[in-house]
Design brief:
Elements lengths: L1 H26 L6 E5 L6 H12 L1 H4 L3 E5 L6 H8 L7 E6 H6 L10 H4 E11 L1 E5 L7 H10 L5 E4 L7 H11 L4 E4 L3 H9 L6 E3 L1 H7 L3 E6 L23 E9 L4 H14 L3 H9 L7 E2 H22 L4
Parallel strand pairs: 1-2, 1-3, 6-7
Antiparallel strand pairs: 3-10, 4-10, 4-11, 5-8, 5-9
Helix pairs in contact: 2-12
């Protein structure tokens, strides 16, 4: 009887250990590198921001975070890959509000952004600025728009992709100013900046990290935001344009269905990252802020964006 009792105890311990193993296994996440998809090209502000945070966050994850650039179709190729990835926490996407919540209102997507993806964190936000080459004939935004009105269709506006972070603010500004310009799409912020420097376009949009990286090669004419970070450069609002034009939010999302404990592990790593002195110093050096927001909080923002962007697209395309 004593032998049988002992056997039962051993069997119970083995079963208990077997049942406990998945929990212990889950607690070791991540056990391998995490892929971070960027649905944009090299050289843009997402690429620059990602280079910074992926160099520091492995300290708090215990594994590398590997950037995978997947530009194309205005961000849809990379986003579709992330949306269809296994919800295991090993594939994330570093995107922005226009790709995430606006595009669904302008064309049929191979995924549903709200149904298929969930926010881990909003890394920060950035105010888009209108920039020209340093040797451009245009010294102010007013001067450029005045010329554009006098020469319909001749002003060349380069942007990073249809309905993207530069196209939307630029379109709103041009419409409000009554300027008929030629829109030229590029595959991301890096290629459009190259086009500007080559003289193929007259102006484009840019974010602080890219502007700082270009140094004296470009000139900022005006910027979004309540206060301009560029000496002597006015904000859109100060020039009389409607408020709210040009703000982009940078977000890290995961396939919906990613286990809550893994979402939490990722969020905890971003919280620690946001307190890391090296990270804070590097972000300051590239001219970007560190306004971290939690996934649940940003999910509420996403819902409002969805409604706001539908209204915006309806107005811009004159849908009734």
């Amino acid at each position: 009887m004593r032998t049988r009792s002992t056997a039962k105890v051993i069997l119970a311990l083995v079963l208990a250990g077997g049942l406990a193993f998945p929990m212990a296994h889950a607690q070791t996440y991540p056990e391998k590198p995490i892929t971070l998809i960027i649905p944009l090209g090299a050289g843009g502000s997402h690429d620059l921001n990602a280079r910074v945070f992926t160099s520091v966050i492995p300290t708090y994850l215990g594994q590398p975070m590997v950037v995978r650039l997947m530009p194309g179709a205005g961000g849809q190729i990379g986003t579709a890959a992330a949306a269809k990835a296994a919800p295991d926490g090993y594939t994330l996407i570093f995107s922005h509000n226009y790709i995430d919540q606006l595009q669904q209102h302008v064309e049929k997507l191979p995924y549903d952004p709200t149904r298929d993806l969930v926010t881990i964190a909003r890394l920060n936000y950035a105010a888009a600025a209108i920039v020209v080459r340093a040797d451009s004939r245009f010294k102010t935004l007013k001067e450029m728009f005045d010329w554009g009105r006098q020469n319909p269709g001749k002003l060349k506006f380069g942007h990073s992709g249809n309905w993207g972070a530069f196209m939307v603010p630029g379109a709103l500004l041009l419409a409000e100013a009554g300027v008929d310009a030629t829109f030229i799409a590029h595959k991301g912020g890096g290629p459009v900046m190259q086009a500007l420097l080559a003289g193929d376009i007259d102006f484009t949009g840019a974010f602080p990290s890219v502007i700082k990286a270009q140094g004296d090669k470009i000139r900022v004419l005006a910027t979004a935001g309540e206060k301009s970070p560029y000496p002597g450069v006015p904000t859109f609002k100060e020039l009389g344009f409607k408020g709210g034009i040009g703000e982009m939010t940078r977000i890290v999302l995961a396939p919906r269905g990613t286990p809550p404990e893994r979402q939490k592990a990722l969020w905890d790593a971003f919280v620690k990252l946001n307190q890391d002195k090296t990270y804070l110093t590097l972000m300051k050096q590239i001219g970007e802020n560190v306004e971290l927001m939690s996934g649940p909080d940003y999910e509420q923002v996403r819902a409002q964006q969805k409604a706001d962007y539908k209204k915006l697209v309806d107005e811009m395309t004159r849908k009734k």
